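look at this:
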Amino acid sequence: MRSAFPPRPRSLFTGCLAAAVAVLVAAGAGTAAPLPAPASAAGTVLPSTAAEPAAGTAAATAAAPVDLANWMGQRAAQLHDRPLNAIAMPGSHDSGSWSIRPGSGLCTSGDAYDVARAYPAVAASMARTQSGSLVDQLDGGARVLDLRLCKQDGRWYTYHGSPLGNLFFDADGRPGEVAALADWIRRHPAELVVLRLSVTAPAAELAAARGAAADLLMDAVGRDRIAPRSAYDPQSPLGAFVDAGRHVVVMGDGREDQRGLLWPASDSTDRGSYAYASLSWYDYLGALFDSAGAAERTYASAVTLDDLALNWPQSARPTGLFSLSGLVTPDLTVPGAVLAQWGAAIGAVPREVADAYMLNLAHGFNARFLTLLTGPWQLHPAVDQFNVVMTDDVNQNGAGVPAGALQRAVIALNDVARQDACGDPEGTPARPGRTVRYQAHLRDVGWQAVTGADGAGVGTVGQSRPVEALRLSATGTGGLWVRAHVQNVGWQPWVRIPDGGTAEVGTTGRALRLEALEVRTDRGTLTGRAHVQGLGWQPRTRGQEIHLGTTGRSLAVEALALAACD
């Protein structure tokens, strides 16, 4: 499982810079490409509740103005018993990059060193993704920090790609940035902080450096505050950490930790939302003449990956931490960064803009991201799966994003009513003995190995792959009736599924899409939702008889979920 906070790979950072600069050199100097235009609006705000909550209740706490530096403690009554991986919390991408400046040096073991030493100003401009210090980011609401450390000449620095940031651990009588980080943690015992650690060093030192960095970090923070993986996991409730004073999680880079302290990177997933680049020479050449358009395409690509990650149909909720990547890769915008440097050299572009091109790119995306957080994602079927939301520039204030707006929008997702598969409030007693199971037959795949049950999804999202048939069974329902609407066939006859029995609807071997499904129970109610070609997830429907999908529109059902209710 890929880490939720992966470093930008050598092939991306190196390839972007090398190819872009090569294209620009071949094309010759020109005017600076325009910077991506920021969005004009920050989106709508969460609606207020109709009734004023009683003082002292969890609802009243949630309705209070958000104190970003203390928001977990402020919501203690609401979040105390909620699993860590079911809490929506802001995260900071490449947290230590805030201190990167032109001329601050290069990490010789960094994944983009070869290119960065040839084009240091461009590398620094694309490497900085935060504007505030680690303490500023924590005060701004971030509770997951993406710490990338480079060991160089016996000292430890933050870095990104190759450009170096501040000294992180104390050295030569100079205080490192970790001191301020540890002090903040000590002063905020009600706030749980996840420190995601990745390390680079010369090859001969790398294995030892990983363990040394973790030890130095835990010593600085205080080992009595570390939540050991041997005693806690992503599904442990927030209160279990805070009540025991174990309010710091240190997540390593996936290597086994014999002491049981570090959490492995496999405890977290991004479900493919991290936007890696897929570039060609012609992409770069086109971006030379359409820098703003390249930024828009990059934004759209990132949002598409986020939608796919949220619509992942294989489980009702991840068992580990789930990190949604609210960020973009440099991708096609690198030519614009190069041209901005040239523009600054001739006075056509402000130097402060040219030296923070990635931050400017992030500002445009953050404005769009905010409209999703405060709008359609509140009603998303996966709203109960929002966990870590990673963003660039946690402390942004401008370009359509007022200070703290992104983080407040993420935190507010904790206030949206969380529901079980039947649409009942989370925590509703289970329905023993009432289960619907279902398996999908997909075009060009056949029967999926996974069998869904009790609201878990089957099928695919984002692959344009129709469901062609379903195999269903049920217990505790008194029996089911089911029929399917099939391409070129229409409604098939009703099929009776006795309690404990199994039946199939749809077709196999004929390449005919399943377009709609009707299911009826003899006892209680059912609930379900379908992901329809071109429409996405339909709203959940519930009743003794439910209808999923569409008819008369030639649209395939691509994924679905069912559950037996009361």
Q: What stands out?
A: The two ends are 37 Å apart (CA to CA). Residues 291-310 form the longest helix (20 residues). The chain has 16 helices and 24 strands. Confidence is low (pLDDT under 50) at residues 1-60.
